[in-house]
Design goal:
- The chain is α/β, with parallel strands linked by helices.
- It has 2 domains: about 120 residues, Alpha-Beta Complex (Aspartate Aminotransferase, domain 1), CATH 3.90.1150; about 230 residues, Aspartate Aminotransferase, domain 2 (3-Layer(aba) Sandwich), CATH 3.40.640.10.
- The chain contains 16 helices and 14 strands.
- The model has no long low-confidence stretch (mean pLDDT about 95).
- Bound molecules: pyridoxal-5'-phosphate.
- Pyridoxal-5'-phosphate binds next to helix 6.
């Protein structure tokens, strides 16, 4: 008798070999996160240009102190789903804080942003409905659309006329839902939210936006691209966010009307059938929101640094997607092996940058994806620029 799993699943060895040959095998590494945009891999200190800790809050002493307080008073885990007994004082406080921050009636937490997208879409549409999904949407939105059972139409945000034609044909469906990232996670470009709101209104559709990369960064108060584009009052808008990026913690959330939140509480399965977030994660997120409100200069400085850096990359002739804003700075290299080679060269030079390959991005569009955070000063970003050019 052998425990060798390749005997049980002989196809695994073949598949893994194919991935390796195509430059698509992902290796697991161990990363030690350090303050101020740094990390350590294999004992080497690198500047981390691959993290989503955009506002440099993961190591902020105030965030850590808040998490510690909740950890010590409420324990390590929530011990049950929110629906049963897992919704502690910290969850309720964070939900209230998120609703107030985003100017909505209510909010609901999910174990992750992925779960929030999956749970919200599947709670809102089903077999009799139709959902319109941008081609560049995050995997969690696409998975939610597929799982919902609704008819799925994929569009390109650069071709809204096509979306409009599809919407014109969709009047016979019970409900229509348009789903989009607000800032596309692999391209760093914003969705045309104003135009999408117009289309949603004209064709009696709801608009669901995923602000994962925008919360805490954009808008006067840091509420995201809905704030920046002034569409927050749109009546059929559903806003989803994550606590795991700008807010430096873990978890997903939806804010909206009390009725929407009541419905998700009753019908959004990922939050019904998963254990609630650790109370310490909730406390950390509350502290992060406080900082976002108190320190607008943090996001303003970051966005200025990003703006300058993006312009320099474009001027230097690198293939950066047009129309980008904010901290996600992709450099398209097309070939997966080229992207991996470029990332290892940068690592030699002391920078951790992600090589992004299919299936995360469409075939032929492999890329370096640089994320700038508030932990990187202009000088550090300049050093990276010189390594790239
Ligand atoms: C990261 C990401 C998510 C998932 O968020 P998690 O909280 O990490 O699960 C959802 N949507 C987009 C656009 C993302 O980039």
């Amino acid at each position: 008798m052998s425990n060798d799993p390749t005997n049980t699943f002989p196809w695994l060895a073949d598949e893994l070999r194919d991935l390796e040959r195509g430059g698509l095998l992902r290796k697991r590494r161990q990363v030690k996160s350090l303050p101020d945009g740094l990390c350590e891999i294999d004992g080497r200190r690198l500047v981390n240009f691959a993290s989503n800790d955009y506002l440099n809050l993961a190591h902020d002493p105030r965030v850590i102190a808040a998490a510690r307080e909740a950890l010590e008073s409420a324990g390590a885990g929530a011990t049950a789903s929110a629906l049963v007994t897992g919704r502690t004082e910290w969850h309720a406080r964070l939900e209230q804080r998120l609703a107030a921050f985003e100017g909505h009636e209510a909010a609901i937490l999910f174990p992750t942003g992925y779960a929030a997208n999956l749970g919200t879409i599947t709670a809102l549409v089903g077999d009799d409905d139709i959902v319109f999904c941008d081609r560049l949407n995050h995997a969690s939105l696409i998975d939610g659309c597929k799982l919902s059972g609704a008819r799925l139409r994929v569009y390109r945000h650069t071709q809204l006329d096509k979306l409009q034609r599809e919407l014109e044909k969709a009047a016979g469906h019970r409900r229509r839902l348009i789903v989009t990232d607000s800032l596309f996670s692999m391209d760093g470009v914003p969705a045309p939210l104003v135009e999408l709101c117009d289309l949603a209104e004209r064709f009696d559709a709801a608009l669901l936006i995923d602000e994962a990369h925008a919360t805490g960064l954009f808008g006067e108060q840091g509420r995201g691209l809905a704030e920046l584009d002034n569409i927050e009052e749109h009546p059929s808008l559903i806003r989803i966010g994550t606590l795991s990026k700008g807010l430096a913690s873990l978890g997903g959330f939806v804010t909206g009307s009390q009725q929407l939140i009541d419905w998700l509480w009753n019908r959004a399965r990922p939050q019904m059938f998963s254990t609630a977030l650790p109370p310490s994660a909730c406390a950390a997120a509350i502290a992060a929101i406080d900082i976002i409100e108190q320190e607008p200069e943090r996001r303003q400085r970051l966005l200025e640094t990003c703006d300058t850096f993006r312009k320099k990359l474009i001027t230097a002739g690198l293939d950066v997607p047009e129309g980008g804003i904010g901290p996600i700075m992709p450099i398209i290299l097309n070939d997966p092996e080229r992207a991996v080679a470029a990332a290892s060269e940068l690592e030699e030079a002391g920078f951790l940058v992600a090589a992004i390959r299919p299936p995360t991005v469409p075939t032929g569009t492999s890329r370096l994806r640089i994320t700038v955070t508030a932990g990187h000063g202009d000088e550090t970003v300049d050093k990276l620029f010189h390594s790239l050019c």
